[in-house]
Specification:
The chain is an alpha+beta fold. It contains 2 helices and 5 strands, in the order αβββαββ. It has a single domain, classed as OB fold (Dihydrolipoamide Acetyltransferase, E2P) (Beta Barrel), CATH 2.40.50. Strands 1-2-3-5-4 form a 5-stranded mixed barrel.
């Protein structure tokens, strides 16, 4: 009987842990293409905007472009990589989250 209770408690605890597990980052959008256009605005107004070929929305219910702000971690590296990708015509994948109706880039892959 005690063994059965211990097993039930262990199963219950395992089920609770499984329910509580969430992905580290849930992206609202993942899009791939070549950069067709880049726009630059002031530091906190979606400062660096990226448009990809054939993409009408970068993230769910978001704009047709993704952005970075100057305060974003690794901002200068993102900008340098994206400018180089634009110059070389490389394919990029943007991973973004929806923030106030716009797609905030959180991860970039350049191929």
């Amino acid at each position: 009987m005690a063994r059965s209770i211990k097993r039930s408690v262990a199963l219950f605890a395992g089920a609770l842990m499984w329910i509580a597990v969430k992905p580290a980052v849930a992206w609202d959008g993942t899009v791939t293409g070549t950069i067709t256009s880049i726009q630059i605005a002031n530091a906190t107004n979606q400062a660096f905007r990226v448009f990809l070929s054939g993409i009408s929305t970068v993230c769910v219910n978001g704009a047709s472009w993704g952005y970075l702000n100057e305060a974003d971690s690794n901002y200068k590296t993102y900008v340098a990589g994206l400018l180089l990708a634009k110059a070389q015509g490389s394919t990029v994948t943007l991973y973004s989250t929806l923030e106030n109706g716009y797609c905030h880039i959180g991860y970039v892959s350049i191929n």
